[in-house]
Amino acid sequence: MTGLNAHDNQHTPSPTPPATSWATVPTRSIAVGGADFAYRTYGPVGGVPVIFLHHLAANLDNWDPRVIDGIAAHHHVVAFDNRGVGASGGSTPDTIEAMAADAIAFIEAMGFAKVDLLGFSMGGFIAQVIAAARPELVRSIILAGTGPAGGEGIERVTRVTYVDSITAILTNKDPKQNLFFTRTENGKAQARAFVARLKERTDDRDAAVSLRVLRTQLRAIHAWGAQTPADLSAITHPVLVANGEHDRMVPTSNSYDLARRLPNATLRIYADAGHGGIFQEHRQFVTAALEFLAA
User: Fold this and answer.
1) How do the domains of the chain map onto residue ranges?
2) Which residues form the AB hydrolase-1 domain (predicted)?
3) Among candidate residues 240, 223, 292, the one with its CA nearest the CA of residue 75
4) Number of C-beta neighbours around residue 271 at 10 A
5) Domain 28-294 carries which CATH code?
6) How does pLDDT run across 52-81, given as a tens digit for each residue?
7) d(CA 10, CA 274)
């Protein structure tokens, strides 16, 4: 999204990210198209940065430290709150395409000429639009717990989200425990461990995501699911597709569909795992992601 007046309103983005863990990396801000975007960046400088694109109703503190630290041990990592989300200013876009345009504007404001994308769930929708709209900006893509436009069951995300969230609240759980993990004993234990990891950062926490943002993003996801199935043949980048075998939010059949229709895709499916399979099986996923990025 060229032509926006995008500049850092506090500093020039540091060429040497100072932190070594997600629990301590500072939150920074950069002006993009009239709004300040909150972001965090760390990991070794040099090479192609990995841009993390997060899920429905997520802010920076919703990234699993084991996943993002694992990638940042070998790559320059950048994660940000999209417009209107968390500590970022402006109004939340109500289409995936508008979210992707903001992500492109952020990437360009940061001065990156080429990036790798890691999109989880809704972030995977955004990554697909970025790759199709600006193929020269992208080197490779990791799509986790996600699906194509018009994918099977994506239009039902709103119902699943509300039902599982209400159930979680009534049983004193984080909604992600129901939405992201299986109901097996292993899945329940992994869910508790994941929620505990999200609390490891105690200082400089991100702003909470409002109910209004949730509803706006759900409208965007519903529209994505209701679209005519996308032509994915133009996305020729190397793609790693990953998911759990029992994804209730974005049915796992969509991961198989992506891997079949994308010309240059590799598929990883994790047993006894759900939508948050990359968090549950974070060791396996980080190993696969690092091998993929190195290749």
Assistant:
1) 28-294
2) 49-280
3) 292
4) 11
5) 3.40.50.1820
6) 999 999 999 999 999 999 999 999 999 999
7) 40
